[in-house]
Model the fold of this input.
Amino acid sequence: MFIHQSSCISPQSTFGNIDLDTLIAPENNILKVVEPKYENIPLNILRRMGKAVRIGVGAALPLIEKANKLDGIIIGSANGGMEDCVKFLNQIIEYDEGRLTPTNFVQSTPNAIAAQIGLTTANKGYNITHVHRGLAFENALLDAMMMLKENNDATYLLGGVDEVSSYNYNLERLGGWYKKEKITGVDLYNSQTNGSIAGEGSAMFVVNNESAGSFLEVKAIKMLHTNDSAEVAAQLNHFNDVNGPHNAWLSGENGDVRVQPFYQACENNLTGDMAILHFKHFTGEHPSTTALALWLANRFFETKKIPSHFFKSTPAEKPIGSILLYNSGKGEQHSFLSLRAVEH
Amino acid sequence: MSRVVVTGLGVISALGDSVFSNHDALVKGTCGISTGELVKSKYTESLRFGEVKIENEKLKSLLGISDPSATRTSLLALHALNEAIKDCGLDVALISGYDTALIGASTVGGMCQTDELYLDAKSETVGSAFMASYDCASVTLFLRERYGIKGVTNTINTACSSSANAIKYGTQLINNGYAKRAIVGGVDSLAKFTINGFNSLGILSPGFCRPFDKDRNGLNLGEGAAFLVLEREEDVKNKKPYCYVAGYCNSNDAFHPSSLSENGEGPYRAMKGALDLASLAPAEIGFIGTHGTGTENNDEVESRAMMRIFEKVPPFASAKSKIGHTLGASAAVEAVFSILALQHGEIYPSLNFSNPIESTGLRPVSVTQKLNLRHVMSNSFGFGGNCTSLIFSKA
Done:
């Protein structure tokens, strides 16, 4: 599967004027998205959209406008329109199940992003939303790969979206998934405590089986559920044997001491000359970070440049032509992706 | 390519807590809809629901679950999953392998604990036992852990067509070599959240829903779960499968967030695409398990879309007249019902129908009949224009 156009709304300068060298620091350990002006969404529609829908549709529209044809929309989002969900929940309780307005209810469903993209662009093709928490985007990606096997000439929009809403922020905070001490950026990785920094974002990709014009090929994906780091490392070795070798290791490490053993076990097992990269200081932590990491990898291949702050190891001198991406959702859900630069 | 066959079924709905009891009720034309008894809402007694009359504590003891974070949604799902796994006869050791996929679908997930969620979303200090159980994925993760399933695990939400897409995704995983077998299905439980959501849209019937009737006035919400075990035909030479998955198609109506377009473009494309994938002519479909919610919009649009495809619309019925609209579970529960029709060579009635919609004149099946079926279609349409049709055929 090849990536063609892509776009990303994130806490950093990734949309419009892209600048990966300058880092925007988290505020109170939250990296919130830098929202564009959404000039191509009608104002009356924009006003009714919650943030997740906004950043999803906002990132998707410029791609769809450029694409000749689109056979469907495949989205991964663990939380979907949670902002609307909690608004509707508040109405239920505060008005004691009285007369409620349906707008928030309709927008609260996790499929609202894919649905709204389909509706806005009158796309009557395939339309689906995967919500499997830390593997929501990965399942969307696998879905796209399988759909392209069955429909060789098709082109799909693939995306991953998650927001920081008051609802999920509070649940994650109570669950101990955010750090209590203040984090300013790359110091995230030196932390010896529980939790990470919160993040949000949306990354969209036009994908098909055509290599011409593409900079990145997704070679393979593997997903795993386990809380045994040795099992993850063993599975990674197998994945690397089948799909490797890779020049670089892109790690989803997030500074949480409870999850670090998984990343470390895998890193320790790596053989050969591999550059080591990480990205959570750039995106923050949320269930769909792999989508943003994929966008970054595509950008690295396209520009043949990787800003130094992404390197955990000494910056590589040779150009990086293949990346092994590993991300873990809370040490329970794991994914490996094999990504290759397309040579033209 | 080896065909993907259905080798195990499990279901729990307002009609019963097993495939056997559901089948018995379908044959008798029983209605499972009544006033609420267990769901906690202002509307419990004034509205009618397809409620599973087993309380949470009873479900827990039946299932041997003591986990305080298990929600009703997870419990109903486990009940159906256990039955499907037992029914397929596979060794539990095989189920837990890397080549078994588990695909769930839900729309309400753990938000059936609506009041707890409200408190947890605001709490400054400590959360309830349900903290990690509100999302839809929590249900699938709970099931995965019970059997230690190691293959591809996923949760899908396309509103009311969610579990049809779980069946589609599981079939594709097998066809593409990502799994040797897939356990696929869906679940939803009655919740203050969805009752108020559908009530705010003004589409809940004050009485019993009357799918395809001229005077229909809305839907009844229901709850339940169903799972299907899918395997490759070449792996199951020693047992007789129920049927095979012949076709599926997911297509968006792209018209309105919560209602279907007049001509039913999404439903039409879903049915047409499923027929094309199955390489079947419309006339070969012997029965349609319709989406048939009983709302003014759905039934007329679905009728119109069926009339566009079928020169003569085959016998059809709405299971929602008996179990209510079980949302994320509906496609899986109704797929089980369609598969039972195929297996037993019979079709089951739609209830509460008197007069056809004037513009269509279509009448659903009114009594249980014997009918030799080869191919059945099952429709599911959801908010956001998410339409999916499935076709099951005799193996």
Observations:
- Chain A touches chain B through 66 residues (CB under 8 Å).
- Chain A has a mean pLDDT of 94.
